[in-house]
From TrEMBL, chain A:
Taxonomic source organism: Microbispora catharanthi
Gene assigned in the entry: yjfF
Coiled-coil region list: none
Transmembrane segments: 20-40, 52-71, 101-124, 130-148, 169-193, 224-246, 258-291, 303-324
Locations listed in the record: Cell membrane
UniProt-recorded name of the protein: Sugar ABC transporter permease YjfF
Topological relation to the membrane, as annotated: Multi-pass membrane protein
Automatic annotation (TrEMBL), chain B:
PROSITE patterns associated with the record: ABC_TRANSPORTER_1, ABC_TRANSPORTER_2
Source superkingdom: Bacteria
Subcellular location: Cell membrane
Main location: membrane
Name of the featured protein: ATP-binding cassette domain-containing protein
Lineage: Bacteria, Bacillati, Actinomycetota, Actinomycetes, Streptosporangiales
Membrane topology (UniProt): Peripheral membrane protein
An example Gene Ontology CC term for this record: plasma membrane
Gene3D superfamilies xrefs: P-loop containing nucleotide triphosphate hydrolases
Automatic annotation (TrEMBL), chain C:
InterPro entries attached to this UniProt entry: ABC_transp_permease
GO molecular function, a single term: transmembrane transporter activity
A GO cellular component annotation in the UniProt record: plasma membrane
Annotated keywords: Cell membrane, Membrane, Transmembrane, Transmembrane helix
The UniProt record lists the keyword Membrane: yes
Membrane topology: Multi-pass membrane protein
Organism whose genome encodes this protein: Microbispora catharanthi
Transmembrane segments: 9-27, 47-65, 72-91, 97-118, 130-148, 168-189, 219-238, 250-269, 276-298, 304-322
Main location: membrane
Domain of life, source organism: Bacteria
UniProt-recorded name of the protein: ABC transporter permease
The organism's taxonomic lineage, starting at the top: Bacteria, Bacillati, Actinomycetota, Actinomycetes, Streptosporangiales
Compartment(s) of residence: Cell membrane
Length: 333, 502, 348
């Protein structure tokens, strides 16, 4: 029975590092918050964090969809354009007198269908996600311009009501409905990823698509589902963005796909797929939001410092993750 | 003999790939409660037959009946749902998921659509306990060895209500104890009436476990036999269509002329990989390394080649102290290393045979000094002919060659460099008997020509047949070094088992 | 015939020819090339001239993609190179001094190479996935470019600098000559010398290449630095053409167009085999598309729609899975499987 003893010896020698990236992100978020609190007055308040949620609700929702896609090892470059398309569609349809809720439903359906189509092309025709979603990005952006090249204001009472409502949380704290929607989306998504077959299939597909196929998992359905989810989330993010800006504009959300990817990566999800948590993505979005808050508190810094700072932070986080997870990673065949 | 009705019957199966007839009119049947070995050289059509059966490929001709009903599976999932489960040679699991999930994914215990994690872990532990495995099922699969991952794959396949279990070379990465464990499980499943289709390159295992065998050659059926009625020699004859003489011929090896010491490792070691060892390899000497999988065989090779960094000790080449930081510096010292993992560490699949062949030579020259086309042709033609690489087309993509021929190309890649020490890690694993013999003979010839060879193999007979000196490894330690005079597999087995300090 | 059909440059070529033919319908004398004042003029010349920066960036990108990498930062490098060169030139006492301009250009190119090497270091030295490693510079780079120009659009008035992107030499636009030289150089390095084999080998299987004694690190550093250089030259061309540097918009989305050009040209994103001529074709297709949209009078805002359409068509046509599923299903049902077989073999 030496072999069994041998097998026992092979029990993992180190704690799996899957939680470390998230912990690091959480730690850095806290450190930034504390540092901000020391440096600026009126910074270390609950409302600051809530404001980050309010100002980045749309990004959070988009990043949730992106997390699904990246977990399967894919990528979705179309999200920013779909956000813009959603604002454009809402604004122009509302201007034509459509009822607000019908517009919302239609926009969400269109986003999901767009994602579904991209997912189907990626899976059935075996074209790289990078390229297909790039085409989707051009398509959505192009559609925006065919609707209008100008910014269209939104004056619909339902939309403006939602935009102006603040939900009081007691104390001096309040949040916008958008932030609440974003948090609900996060909770649902976390449940789906952890407690449903779809979620586990997402991880399995990202771990090894070939294995997932041979294990009899519905890889096609899973892959198409994640792009559909991402499309839906982008459209929802677009609606939240419309609430936030009360206008539709073809040039809005340019580069948001980068912010979403950056948030997911800073949150500790591997771009190769199969590893990461939704909580990480939430933290990633919070970190990005906090950077902007800090720069606005600083006051003297020009806007381009935001980009440099995000780039720098990306570098630091990626490096840290490399240090923590790199050592224990197996030589992958 | 009155056999029970077959649970699975395939008749007249034909499968065509562009340019190749992979299967041609093959009949095959599986009886309930038997272990049925599918035998044949590489390229005989074993894998294709399995993939046709499990719905990975369509069939072009013939029909498949499961329990008397004609079936055609559109996917492995459909086959699995019908009761045909497969464990492939390569572990096809998701190593990023936990052990429990790998056993249950796709059929997790749920309540109202919510996965019951606790129940799943508990049941996973029960299933593994039946295989005598006691491991943490919530740890990711990637934290366990390949052998264990393989056992998890089998546990998964077993737990699915399988009528037919296909084991496609499951033992190639297991050590003797693990194989015994697997066989225990197989026997238990057999008693439950499950039909097992078993593929393995190890003849001893076939004879130990199988009741019946079907032999394929070049995509056609040779016949179906009871294992007890077919001798090993007959079996090999039917598989390769020629006699065993080739294998026998090698038995006599000229003793090694005592050359000068070429490579001297002094207390070389690396934490977690191999304990410090001392080993000297002389010119023209074949040193065999024997030991179970994971005993540190490959790790020794990688240290000597600079593929991993040594933590302790020193290395001398020609008596001169060297530090091999990268494979590149080892190549510069005329060392060569053929990895056991052809696919991950050897082949560049999208390149041609020619490009794969000249790769190491080009690398050693650097990119600024290309090898002239005429020189390339000369070298490539020479080695294709010398090693009998088929098809003899240098512009064929290497991924389209059979395993044996790929291995020969990789060997040629190093032979072109005329190395002084050639390290071969399991060069004959997973390749057919014919190519195996050719490679063994080549090793003998090379060492006669003055090249030193470090030969690693799981097959003790092969090690004994070729080596002048044998190093024995156990639990990541070089426990013994013995001259190959009067050494038998029994002595070796015993040394491995006892870890003798001789 | 079937061999021609299967050649990997066949479909890109067909598309390019179709696009050009379309132009012929809408524009008279589309193919006419004239000599005016010792300079060549014509729509075809313009396509190559305006496409020159994209071709350059795509060439560098091809090599990066062949190593199974990707460089998202080229757009930022384009902006930075232009910004730095313009900043230096605007600071010269005599903006027309050839020496001063050469110095500025040289400095900008050195910085581009350094930025490329930085990407190479992250990928090869630290081992970060290329898409993330270059994302860093992509995000930060635009900020850096604006930092250099202090958020302004820096304008210069220098005739030697104008030559790079807007001038003529030996009757040809100077940009075309630069492209030709860089293309010839790239082809020489990769195909006459052995750099191409090593790149394809590293892209095909990095670990196997390392064990075969290839210095994968060196190859990667070289390739990323080269890609940076190409982007830098393109940046100079773009800013020279308009005699100004715009940190925010110069080279915006050129990385996507370049990746597109590479993929249209038949180099797979997964790395390995690459085709320089394919990439040039791909870049020309993209440029011709833009020209076509202007010439047939479609509103320029919809360029993106057409781009999406062409991307989809080209990628679908090149996808073996699409071809077998759509073209072969009815006629030869039994041979409709090689794609599936391919898929399995890769993993087996």
């Amino acid at each position: 029975m030496t072999s069994i003893a041998g097998l026992r010896d092979l029990r993992r020698r180190t704690v799996p590092p899957k939680y470390i990236p998230v912990l690091v992100t959480a730690g850095l978020f806290l450190a930034m918050f504390v540092a901000g609190g020391i440096r600026y007055e009126n910074f270390a308040t609950g409302q600051i964090i809530l404001n980050v949620f309010i100002d980045n609700a749309f990004l959070l929702v988009v990043a949730v969809g992106m997390t699904f896609v990246i977990l399967t090892g894919g990528i979705d470059l179309s999200v920013g354009s779909v956000v813009a398309l959603a604002t454009m569609l809402s604004a122009s349809l509302l201007k034509d007198g459509w009822p607000a809720y019908a517009v919302m439903a239609l926009v969400l359906v269109i986003g999901a269908v767009l994602g579904l189509a991209m997912g189907a092309i990626i899976h059935y025709f075996e074209i790289q996600p990078f390229i297909v979603t790039l085409a989707g990005m051009f398509l959505a952006r192009g559609l925006c311009y065919t609707i209008s090249t100008e910014s269209i204001p939104i004056e619909n009472p339902t939309f403006t009501d939602i935009a102006q409502t603040r939900i009081n949380l007691g104390g001096d704290l309040s949040v916008s409905p958008s932030a609440v929607i974003a948090v609900v989306v996060v909770l649902i998504a976390a449940y789906v990823l952890h407690y449903t077959r779809l979620g586990r299939n997402v991880y399995a597909t990202g771990g090894s698509e070939q294995s997932a196929l041979l294990m009899g998992l519905p890889v096609a359905r899973t892959k198409i589902a994640v792009y559909t989810i991402s499309g839906f989330c982008s459209a929802l993010g677009g609606l939240l963005f419309a609430f936030y800006s009360l206008s539709g504009y073809g040039l809005s959300a340019v580069g948001m796909e980068l912010d979403a990817i950056a948030a997911v990566v800073i949150g500790g999800t591997l771009l190769t797929g199969g590893s990461g948590f939704l909580l990480g993505t939430v933290l990633g979005v919070l970190v990005l939001g906090l950077i902007q808050t800090i720069i606005s508190f600083e006051g003297t810094l020009s806007s381009w410092w935001t980009r440099i700072f995000i780039g720098l932070l990306l570098f630091v986080f990626i490096l840290l993750q490399r240090v923590f997870s790199g050592g224990s990673r197996r030589r992958t065949p | 003999m009155a056999a029970p009705a077959p649970i699975l019957r395939m008749s007249g199966i034909g499968k065509q790939f562009p340019g190749v007839k992979a299967l041609d009119g093959v009949d095959f049947r599986l009886l309930p409660g038997e272990v049925h070995a599918l035998m044949g050289e590489n390229g005989a059509g074993k894998s294709t037959l399995i993939k046709v059966l499990t719905g990975v490929y369509d069939i072009d001709a013939g029909e498949i009946e499961l329990e008397g009903r004609p079936v055609a599976f559109s996917s492995p999932l459909a086959a699995q749902q019908a009761g045909i489960s497969t464990v492939y040679q390569e572990v096809n699991l998701c190593t990023n998921l936990s052990v429990a999930e790998n056993i249950f994914i796709g059929r997790e215990p749920r309540r109202l659509g919510r996965i019951q994690w606790k129940a799943m872990r508990r049941r996973a532990e029960e299933i593994l306990a039946r295989l005598d495995l006691d491991i943490d099922v919530s740890a990711p699969l990637s934290s366990y060895s390949l052998a264990l991952q393989q056992m998890v794959a089998i546990a998964r396949a077993v737990d699915i209500d399988a009528k037919v279990l296909i084991l496609d070379e499951p033992t190639s990465s297991l050590d003797a104890g693990e194989v015994a464990q697997l066989f225990t499980v197989m026997r238990r499943l057999k008693e439950q009436g499950i039909a097992i289709l078993f593929v393995s390159h190890f003849l001893d295992q076939i004879y130990e476990i199988s009741d019946r065998m079907t032999i394929l050659r070049n995509g056609t059926l040779v016949g179906e036999y009871l294992t007890s009625e077919l001798s090993q020699v007959e079996l090999i004859g039917k598989m390769i269509g020629r006699e065993l003489a080739d294998l026998e011929k090698l038995e006599e090896r000229p003793p090694a002329g005592e050359g000068a010491p070429l490579v001297q490792a002094e207390e070389l070691g690396r934490t977690g990989a191999i304990q410090p060892f001392t080993l000297t390899i002389h010119e023209g000497e074949v040193v065999g390394l024997a030991g179970l999988l994971g005993s540190g065989r490959t790790e020794i090779a990688r240290l000597l080649f600079g593929a991993d960094h040594a933590g302790t000790g020193s290395l001398k080449i020609d008596g001169e102290q060297v530090s091999l930081r990268t494979p590149r510096s080892a190549v510069a010292r005329k060392l060569a290393f053929c990895s056991e993992n052809r696919r991950a560490e050897g082949l560049i699949p999208d390149l041609t045979v020619r490009e794969n062949l000249i790769l190491a030579l080009q690398a050693s020259r650097g990119w600024t000094r290309p090898i002239p086309r005429r020189k390339q042709d000369e070298l490539v033609d020479k080695y294709i002919a010398a090693l009998n690489i088929r098809p003899a087309n240098p512009d064929q993509l290497i991924k389209n060659l059979s395993g044996g021929n790929q291995q020969k190309v990789l060997l040629a890649r190093w032979l072109i460099l005329e190395p002084r020490l050639l390290i071969l890690d399991e060069p004959t694993r997973g390749i057919d008997v014919g190519a195996k013999t050719e490679i063994q003979r080549l090793v003998a010839e090379l060492s006669d020509g003055g090249m030193a060879v470090l030969f690693i193999s799981a097959e003790l007979e092969e090690v004994l047949r070729l080596s002048h000196k044998v190093g024995v490894l156990r639990d990541r330690k070089l426990v013994a070094q013995m001259d190959n005079e009067g050494l038998t597999t029994d002595t070796l087995t015993e040394t491995i088992a006892s870890g003798a300090r001789s | 015939m079937s061999r021609i059909l299967k050649h990997r440059l066949f479909w890109p070529l067909v598309i390019l020819v179709a696009l050009l033919a379309l132009n012929l319908i809408f524009t008279d004398n589309f193919f006419k090339i004239q000599m005016k004042e010792g300079h060549l003029y014509g729509s075809l010349i313009d396509i190559v001239r305006f496409g020159a920066p994209l071709i350059l960036v795509s060439l560098g990108m091809t090599l990066v993609i062949a190593t199974s990498g990707i460089d998202l930062s080229v757009g930022s490098v384009v902006a930075i190179a232009g910004a730095l060169a313009c900043l230096r030139i605007s600071g010269l006492s005599d903006q027309n001094s050839v020496g001063g301009v050469l110095g500025a250009v040289g400095l900008a190119l050195v910085l581009s190479v350094v930025l490329g090497a930085w990407n190479g270091f992250l990928v090869a030295g630290i081992g970060i996935q290329p898409i993330i490693a270059t994302l860093i510079l992509m995000v930060a780079g635009r900020g850096l470019a604006q930092l250099i120009t202090d958020g302004q659009i820096t304008t210069v008035n220098s005739s030697p600098y104008k030559l790079i992107g807007g001038g003529y030499w030996l009757t040809l636009p100077f940009g075309i000559i630069i492209v030709a030289v860089v293309l010839a150089l790239t082809a020489f390095l990769t195909r006459r010398l052995a750099l191409g084999l090593l790149i394809e080998s590293v892209g095909g299987n990095a670990e196997a290449s390392r064990l075969a004694g290839i210095s994968a690190r060196g190859v990667l550093m070289t390739v990323y630095a080269f890609c940076g250089l190409c982007a830098g030259i393109a940046g100079l061309m773009i800013s020279s053409n308009v005699s100004s540097a715009d940190g925010n918009n110069a080279g915006l989305w050129i990385e996507l167009d370049a990746i597109l050009a590479v993929v249209i040209g038949g180099t797979p994103l997964s790395g390995g085999r690459f085709s320089l001529s394919g990439t040039v074709l791909g870049a020309l297709i993209i440029q011709t598309l833009t020209t076509t949209i202007y010439s047939i009078g479609v509103p320029p805002e919809t360029t993106l729609l057409f781009k999406a359409l062409v991307v989809t068509i080209v990628c679908l046509i090149q996808s073996p899975a699409f071809r077998t599923k759509v073209f072969h299903r009815r006629r030869r049902p039994m041979t409709a499987r090689p794609a599936a077989e391919e898929k399995v073999r890769v993993s087996a």
